[in-house]
Amino acid sequence: MSGEGPVRVAVVGAGYVGLTTAACLAHLGHDVTCADVDPAKVASLSDGVIPIHEEGLAELVREGIAAERLRFVVGAAKAVTGAGFVFLCVPTPQGPDGAADMSYVEAVSVEIGPLLEHDAIVVNKSTVPVGSTRVVERALGRPGVAVVSNPEFLREGSAVSDFLHPDRIVIGADEQSAAISLVELFGAIRSPVVVTDPPTAETIKYASNAFLATKVSFANAIANVCEAVGANVREVVLGMGYDRRIGSEFLRPGPGWGGSCFPKDSAALVRIAEDAGYDFGLLKGVIEVNTRQQEAVVAKVVEAAGGSVTGKRVAAWGLTFKAGTDDLRDSPALAVIGRLVAAGAEVTAYDPTRRDPLPGLSVSSDPYDACEDASALVVLTEWDEFRWLDLGVVRSRMARPRIVDTRGLIEPAAARRAGFVLSGVGIP
Ligand code: UDX
Ligand code: UDX
Q1: Residue nearest to atom 2 of ligand 2 (CA)
Q2: Residue nearest to atom 9 of ligand 2 (CA)
Q3: Ligand 2 within 6 A of 216 CB?
Q4: What local confidence, expressed as pLDDT, does residue 2 receive?
Q5: pLDDT tens track for 113-133
Q6: Where in the chain is the domain with CATH 3.40.50.720?
Q7: CA 309 to CA 303: how far, in whole Å?
Q8: Cα 414 from Cα 417, distance rounded (Å)
Q9: What angle do CA 303, 309, 315 make, to 5 degrees?
Q10: Which pLDDT belongs to residue 92?
Q11: Which of 103, 340, 393, 397 is most deeply packed, by most CB within 10 A?
Q12: Interacting residues of 33 by C-beta distance below 8 A, sequence separation 6+
């Protein structure tokens, strides 16, 4: 497909990646059909109701539906007929051995192969192991159809702005014509475009996520050094960040990184390297630091609760894997809470986006109620509202005056004034 003007596009998978891709391409003026296997999700999306917390996404979905440029169907087969581009946005979960599970991508490719237009371009947006473009080509069984890698760099909580204003667009294509057609499709987006071959594009995605995870693990490791030498990590990373070669982003210490990408992609890259004969020791170390960071946070909470949490109430602020999203997938907050519950604690949690009960812990709709009779309060997700809660009220509800702030949100002087002993990550 080539040439300017609106193009018929199919998007397979209506999750964070697929829904954002579909709504934004419709916003750019294209005619988009988004398919999902989940009929209930398709029905609610068709009513303009979206199941995820993403800034600006619901408005774009409703705009697309109203302009009749965006529609939702059950099953990929219904979406691909007549489509010039088919975006694959189905999950590539981490398999038990660390490798990415390609089964959804392969199954969808087998399903749509016979139905594609002769000049359709299949665009792989799912994070897939290096070399997977070939897997899709084989599964499609359509030698004439181009398969292009176009990895997503969307951060949850800013997915729409990351799609419409990306730092870069990466395209991995064997045929230049397919790459040019995709550049034209994204025409209205003014960002640098890196055009390369598929394996290189797939590696850019994994390498980018692995490097970001490395920065965060480095910050967490330096935080542990700071605790040992009596330095303040927040000022250390401030001093580091002014160096343009280092930058200040992704150097905030905390309970470790989580989410639906970093854990899966870092494990997958270690496995991809191993399968290719390289032992990626550095990345294994990054993952190890992350696991140990969760253990370190649990130890801090146990100390704050008086040396044991068995039979004690512990309050937790934050359940999601980071602020700005309602996603619990691989959340460090849940990992820490799970370890505390396993140690015998009775945990009551509060999160601005979560109300539904979760196994093994209580979920309160009020941050102060969550602290009732607690021996310690642990702050696990960097929700801005936690900065402004009344610590005097919190103190009046708790059994012990102890806060473990893993995200550096609580002002130490305010904590002291309220009678708290405050501990955190990387502070003396
Ligand atoms: C996920 C991964 O997180 C990301 O790394 C990968 O690049 C794409 O898949 P995400 O959008 O977060 O991205 O996944 P998720 O929110 O789980 O949504 C996946 C959607 O695909 C679900 O709605 C699911 O019902 C749908 N799906 C899954 C299909 O439509 N067909 C399938 O065969 C499998
Ligand atoms: C990430 C990448 O940023 C994005 O480009 C890619 O497409 C998908 O994976 P996301 O998983 O949404 O996006 O979250 P991100 O904002 O990267 O944070 C990942 C984890 O690192 C979160 O648990 C977050 O709390 C943690 N983090 C991030 C820190 O602990 N400190 C930081 O300074 C930054």
Answers
A1: 155
A2: 261
A3: yes
A4: 44
A5: 999 999 999 999 988 888 888
A6: 8-196, 232-428
A7: 9
A8: 5
A9: 90
A10: 87
A11: 340
A12: 8, 9, 10, 11, 71, 72, 73, 78, 79, 83
232-428 adopts what CATH topology? Rossmann fold (3.40.50)
3-state secondary structure of 31: strand
* pLDDT score recorded for residue 131: 84
| Cα 17 to ligand 1 centroid, rounded to whole Å | 7
11-44 residue pLDDT tens: 999 999 999 999 999 999 999 999 999 999 999 9
- Give the per-residue pLDDT at 1: 42
Token couple for 197: 């071959």
Looking at ligand 2, which residue's alpha carbon is closest to its atom 16? 155
- Contact 341 CB / ligand 1 (< 6 Å): no
Q: How far is the CA of 238 from the centre of ligand 2 (A)?
A: 19
What amino acid positions are annotated as catalytic residues?
261
Q: Cβ(255)–Cβ(406) under 8 Å?
A: yes
CATH of 8-196, one of 3.40.50.720, 3.40.50.2000, 1.10.3720.10, 3.40.50.300: 3.40.50.720
Q: Which residue ranges in the chain fall short of pLDDT 50?
A: 1-2
Residue closest via CA to ligand 1's atom 12 equals 16
**Token pair recorded at residue 345:** 């604690």
Cβ–ligand 2 distance for 255 under 6 Å, the answer no
Q: Measured between alpha carbons, how far is 219 from 206 in angstroms, rounded to an integer? A: 20
Residues in the chain: 428
Q: Indicate the pTM of the whole model.
A: 0.94
* Ligand 1 in reach of 108 Cβ (< 6 A): yes
For the Cβ of 259 lying below 6 angstroms from any atom of ligand 2, the answer is: yes
